[in-house]
Design goal:
The protein is of the alpha+beta class. The protein is built from four helices and six strands; from the N terminus they run βββαααβββα. A three-stranded antiparallel sheet has the order 1-2-3, with helices on one face. The protein is globular.
Length: 151
């Protein structure tokens, strides 16, 4: 179930109070055209998904697990040379995406990558070995470039 205060429709107008109920039916008390609501909800859902795991609370546990199951395939498909790089502290205890509420876990610094096609962040542990190496090579190369004087 997801409800939004407002979502921008394809034509740029704001659709207020729309969503999808637990049974899959639309929540649309303002009577917007069904096709416009479904299209706007698809975009809103994709935007939230692209920011996973930060938006995990917007998804059911089943949706979170389905997303988690896609991380290795997303890692295999990502272009390391053009993707966005991220680094933050995350669980060292098997849940780097923070999908469980284990406040007692040990944390460490972890690397993540994402691209427009990865549908959210991908942990370095979900990358194929050659892509993980390429990620660290890129990080090192970019760090060295920042150290060089600019003329």
């Amino acid at each position: 179930m997801s409800r939004y205060e407002w979502v921008i429709a394809n034509d740029g107008t704001k659709l207020f109070q729309i969503g999808v109920l637990a049974d899959g039916s639309l929540y649309n008390p303002n009577g917007y055209p069904e096709a416009a609501v479904r299209a706007a909800l698809t975009v809103a859902h994709a935007d939230q998904m692209s920011r996973m795991p930060w938006t995990r609370d917007a998804f059911t546990p089943e949706e979170q697990q389905a997303w988690l199951a896609t991380r290795q395939a997303a890692g295999a498909a990502i272009d390391i040379q053009t993707c966005e790089l991220g680094c933050w502290y995350a669980s060292d205890d098997g849940d780097p995406y923070g999908l469980t509420d284990d406040d007692a876990c040990q944390v460490g610094k972890h690397r993540f990558v994402r691209s427009p096609v990865s549908n959210g962040w991908v942990h370095e542990g979900d990358l194929p070995l050659e892509k993980a190496r390429a990620m660290y090579d890129r990080i090192e190369t970019e760090a060295e470039a920042r150290k060089r004087p600019h003329h």
